[in-house]
Specification:
Layout lengths: L1 H4 L3 H5 L10 E3 L12 E2 L2 E6 L2 H4 L17 H26 L12 H7 L53 E7 L10 E2 L1 E4 L5 E6 L5 E4 L5 E3 L8 E4 L1 H6 L9 E3 L5 H4 L3 E8 L11 H11 L3 H6 L6 E6 L4 E5 L2 H12 L3
Length: about 350
């Protein structure tokens, strides 16, 4: 990413992201994940890793060639394959933890998991969790109140929103440039936000700055452990599970120590998204449990509206609600919100 950021501005602009697509380069100051800041300074390159999506994109897989950034395409391909294999395992593990069929989430991420499972001859196959199926009489009834039928781009939901084929899971390469002096007022590296998808997988360097909000609303520093990955749950997983797995509120601050902020920071994230035409239908058993725990409809009342509409709180401090109908609409809404004005 350092070599890409060292390219002339006009060369980098060739790869600039063109909304509503995610794929492409995002220059510092053009994306704002929190309304609390007037500027967020980072270089980002989003790479759509699913062929079923890239073939429809304006930037259809456009990446810097070898003569501009040697090894960029090869590194991105290897990272994408590895992250997809890990995401497949995580989706199965979450399903097992919720006492759902092991392939419950995989069925809604086929555009990522099935394409990601195709490897060259002789390469490792995508691992799968193996469990003994429970007898029909003892297996909990955990399926959503309704599930999507066939996947067709011509489908619309009950509110008339078009559903689109494909999957927008993406690799996010980030470089936070150094600050020689303290940043101006209202400027940070990354504002407070939750991820909009199912899960996110993050690898970071040792420069620090990443913080997450704890259950008691305090910000806690995320340290660096070599080889470790940070797994965050996103808005879609929260809606699916009626906040059993709440979305992680996170930010990246500018370190106060002059020597630390004078160095750049690097991170690689993988944002796991359901297939675009998946209607997010909260799991009925969890919705009923949430309703019973709250003593009223509350959040579960929104969950039980069925697959057409799901509402969740995305900012615990301001209790601001976002509604979405399918992943494609959720992502499009987030892109509009984060475009810096």
């Amino acid at each position: 990413m350092d070599r890409f950021c060292a390219l002339p501005q006009d060369t980098r602009d060739v790869y600039r992201r063109i909304p509503p697509h995610q794929h492409g380069y995002v220059a510092p100051g053009t994306e704002r994940l929190s309304e609390e800041w007037i500027g967020e300074i980072r270089h980002t390159f989003n790479v759509s890793v699913c062929d079923c999506y890239c073939q429809h994109s304006v930037l259809a897989g456009k990446l810097p060639p070898h003569d501009e950034v040697p090894g960029f395409q090869e590194a991105v391909d290897d990272l994408g394959q590895d992250f997809k294999r890990l995401a497949r395992l995580l989706l199965q593990a979450v399903a097992v933890g919720l006492e759902l069929p092991v392939d419950f989430f995989l069925q809604h991420h086929k555009g990522m998991t099935e394409e990601g499972a195709v490897r060259a001859e002789g390469s490792p196959t995508t691992p799968t969790i193996q469990i003994d199926p429970a007898p029909p009489s003892s297996r909990p009834s955990s399926r959503p109140s309704s599930t999507p039928s066939s996947r067709r781009s011509s489908e619309v939901d009950a509110n008339g929103h078009a559903l689109h084929e494909g999957n927008e899971s993406s690799l996010r390469l980030e470089f936070y440039p150094p600050f020689g002096a303290p940043p101006p007022a209202g400027v940070t590296r990354c504002g407070e936000h939750t991820d909009c998808g199912t899960l996110s997988i993050l690898a970071q360097d040792s420069e620090g700055g990443l913080e997450v909000q704890t259950a008691d609303k305090q910000w806690a520093r995320v340290g660096h452990l070599p080889g470790a990955l940070l797994i965050n749950t996103g808005d879609v997983m929260s809606a699916w599970t009626c906040n059993r797995y709440a979305p992680t509120l996170q930010r990246v601050i500018v370190p106060e120590q002059p020597k630390v902020r004078a160095r750049g920071r690097h991170a690689v994230g993988f944002l796991v998204q359901p297939d675009n035409d998946t209607l997010i239908c909260p799991i009925e058993r969890l919705a009923l449990a949430a309703q019973a725990a709250n003593g009223s409809a509350g959040l579960a009342g929104h969950c039980l509206q069925g697959p057409m509409r799901a509402e969740l709180f995305v900012d615990s401090s301001r209790r601001r609600k976002r509604s979405f109908y399918a992943p494609h609409h959720n992502i499009a809404s987030r892109l509009r919100e984060t475009a810096a004005s």
